[in-house]
Amino acid sequence: ISDHWKQHIYEALFQAMGEDYQASRASMDLQTDNGGPFTKWDLAFRNLISFFKKSDISYVIPPKSGSWSYVLAYDEVNNLVLSFMKKDRYKTIVKSHRRKIPRYISELLSLNKKLKSRQQSLFGDMDSNDNIEISDKLRTSLNDLCVGFKEKKDNIHHALVVFDYRRDNIQFLKLYLLDKRMNIIEENNWLEAVRPILSNEIPESMDDSAAGNSNVMLNKKSFDRIKDKSKSGDQGTANQNTSAGSKEKDNFSKKESTTS
């Protein structure tokens, strides 16, 4: 996977989990705060799709798996179909010995059935999941995603992008190539290749000079917000000066009235 992909996927996830989610909740005028993990996923997929469109990357939104909507992307250089998962979910699947693996992931992993893991199986003997094949619905989506999928199927594999967002940053971002039994064949730490964004939240006290001297990689929304604050600050100063001038004029009028 190219560094261009890694950087933009990192930025899409970072933006969705942080600033975009906060902005969406602010616009809802919510009176309670119970959290919204699925809202974060919708924002993440929106940002990823925006990157895919701009970069002319093939993507597809397959039919729902249960109540879950998801996005797949295709790296035609490496013949990889990418899906996305949070680290907590990935760990839950591993600990459950595949009992909690989503059906669509099992189907996608069938693309890797000819790949051999270098580690001992985490899940013991064969189980029913090992016989899961790609459904007709998912096959239709893969045909749309990968031109000539039927002919290239044996050379196309599935890779899972796993990430974790904590303490206002992406703390974990890896690509896993897994066999059908969720054993790791290869893994790549993307955080070693991306330029980190330390924060996309602008403190209330930060002015233009502070933002300009900051080492933080700011996005366009952040710069726009700084400009807006600068404009509102100038307007506020002008209003204060006008108000002060009016007070002086009133005091002068009172003195004239007293004198006369």
Question: How would you portray this structure in words?
Answer:
The protein is an alpha+beta fold and 260 residues long. It has helices spanning 3-28, 37-54, 87-95, 103-109, 136-145, 149-152, 208-213, 220-259, and strands at residues 58-60, 72-75, 80-86, 157-166, 169-178, 184-189. Strand 2 and strand 3 form a beta hairpin. Helix 1 (3-28) packs across helix 2 (37-54). The longest helix is centred in the C-terminal third of the chain and has 40 residues, at 220-259.
With strands numbered from the N-terminus, the spatial order across the biggest sheet is: 1-2-3-4-5-6
Distance between the termini: 86 Å
Give unreliable regions as ranges.
Answer: 202-218, 234-244, 252-260
Percent helix: 40-55%
Content of β-strand: 15-25%
The profile of the biggest β sheet is: 6 strands, mixed
Rg from alpha-carbon coordinates:
26 Å
What's the β-strand tally? 6
Alpha-beta content class: alpha+beta
Shape: globular
H-E string: HHEEEHHHHEEEHH
DSSP summary: helix tally: 8
- Average pLDDT, all residues: 79
Provide a compact summary of the structure.
With 260 residues, the protein is α+β, with helices and mostly antiparallel strands. The protein is built from eight helices and six strands, in the order ααβββααααβββαα. α1 packs across α2.
Task: Give descriptors for this structure.
260 residues; alpha+beta; six-stranded mixed sheet; 6 strands; globular; disordered C terminus
